[in-house]
Amino acid sequence: xxxxxxxxxxxxxxxxxxxxxxxxxxxxxxxxxxxxxxxxxxxxxxxxxxxxxxxxxxxxxxxxxxxxxxxxxxxxxxxxxxxxxxxxxxxxxxxxxxxxxxxxxxxxxxxxxxxxxxxxxxxxxxxxxxxxxxxxxxxxxxxxxxxxxxxxxxxxxxxxxxxxxxxxxxxxxxxxxxxxxxxxxxxxxxxxxxxxxxxxxxxxxxxxxxxxxxxxxxxxxxxxxxxxxxxxxxxxxxxxxxxxxxxxxxxxxxxxxxxxxxxxxxxxxxxxxxxxxxxxxxxxxxxxxxxxxx
Length: 294
Fold this sequence. Notes:
Blueprint: H1 2-23, H2 41-64, H3 67-84, H4 88-112, H5 117-126, H6 133-144, H7 149-160, H8 163-178, H9 184-232, H10 234-237, H11 243-266, H12 282-293
Helix pairs in contact: 1-2, 1-3, 2-3, 3-11, 4-5, 4-9, 5-6, 6-7, 7-8, 8-9, 8-12, 9-12
């Protein structure tokens, strides 16, 4: 019996360590211009998460003898660091919007110097923010390879898959098709709009951070009480060892997980609809951009 409790304590310790490492903000990796998805980092992290999840589930199952407790522990170790940790996805989205705004403003300034569209793209892509650097590198390679500018810009829109980028690219598309000369004003307007969007999303993110802090406190208290009860209040938890008790425990765990998922979904910010998709028409995109920059 002491060995089981020692194993249980080790499992709880690993779970707490995983939660703590998930909450702690890590320094961003050095920027690279390579395509996303390359490298060995995500694979090793996933392997460690799988091993830790299975280890904690086995420890809790051996200590309690409850299959439902083992499943709930595995789900908690797998999901809680991602749900309650830093909102990295929103941070990356904000960084990308700001990078697109900076590129649009850089393009506008370069075009005011009487540079052509292709020349302006080639000049600004070399010093573009790293968040969109890989996509712009592919755009410049296509232009140098002789790909027609509208086709290359459409490929860039597919690569970025971002509503704000669609506005910038559509201004360039309209200018390339209709030989428009004064597009710097349109690009400046899109850049300012992107800045306003990023500012709004930062205010929303600040409110979400307060909600996440409250959820972390609640989850920590619940896990702490459950751990203390398992260690020192066996009579209180004995009814959960029956089949009916396991069903009740599963229902309680499912309700708790559902509440966490609901909190996460209510804090999401819906992005604007895209205007440059494979099914969009140039005329419709031009009307939308005129409304956005007006």
